[in-house]
Write a structure and sequence with these properties.
Length: 215
């Protein structure tokens, strides 16, 4: 693909949803691929996981280890690569939050990554976890991390031409810039005002009954 139009794709999903495999399949359509890895071999389990991922990637791909400097890696590699695959933002953000002595804050790091993706000459595929659908973390730092990752995912999704949600290995297209009005229709969809009011009133009645039951 010597002449290709830049495309930004965000691949979201839960643990073991198939998001990394799907992202690699997208990247395999290009000849010059740079893989930006954010994981660190901090323990035996992570070392085994990293080794497995390396075996699964084509040997011709260029791999850059960038646990913290994802934005710099994107800027540097976008000059030569056709596509840059970042896997994943979930681990990257955890590293950013773990750097206590850093002069920058997580919000600034998020903006730097977003700016690098916008300005990249190469296509960019970004992998990230969708963590907002699970249980609320019982500790404050976990809730802050969950919220920041949600904000980061939203910012990347706004930049992206395509957003894909992986569910049990099946890709579900959430956003596709090639389909006019697709995202607007999804965002604006909802019950009529009177139906929403009726649902809210019904919920209040159910809550009142439940409270009476457990008094």
């Amino acid at each position: 693909m010597e002449n290709h139009t830049k495309n930004v794709t965000l691949v979201l999903g839960g643990a073991q949803s198939g998001k990394s495999y799907y992202a690699q399949q997208l990247a395999s359509k290009f000849e010059r691929v740079t893989f930006i890895a954010t994981a660190r071999p901090a323990d035996p389990e992570m070392r085994r996981k990293i080794a497995r991922h390396r075996r699964e990637r084509p040997v011709a791909w260029r791999t850059i280890e960038a646990p913290l400097d994802v934005h710099q890696a994107i800027r540097a590699e976008s000059q030569e690569a056709e596509v840059i695959l970042v896997d994943c933002l979930t681990v990257y953000l955890a590293h950013v939050m773990g750097v206590r002595k850093s002069k920058s804050n997580p919000q600034e790091s998020i903006e730097r990554v977003c700016d690098a993706i916008r300005e990249s000459k190469a296509s960019v595929i970004v992998v990230s976890n969708e963590v907002g659908s699970g249980v609320v973390p019982p500790y404050r730092s976990g809730r802050i991390y969950r919220d920041l990752l949600g904000q980061l995912n939203q910012k990347i999704a706004q930049i992206a031409d395509e957003v894909v949600l992986m569910v049990a290995g099946i890709p579900i297209t959430v956003k596709d810039a090639k389909i006019p009005g697709r995202v607007a229709d999804v965002r604006l969809a909802g019950p009529p005002a009177d139906q929403s009011a009726a649902s809210a009133n019904g919920a209040r009645r159910r809550n009142s009954r439940a409270q009476g039951t457990f008094r």
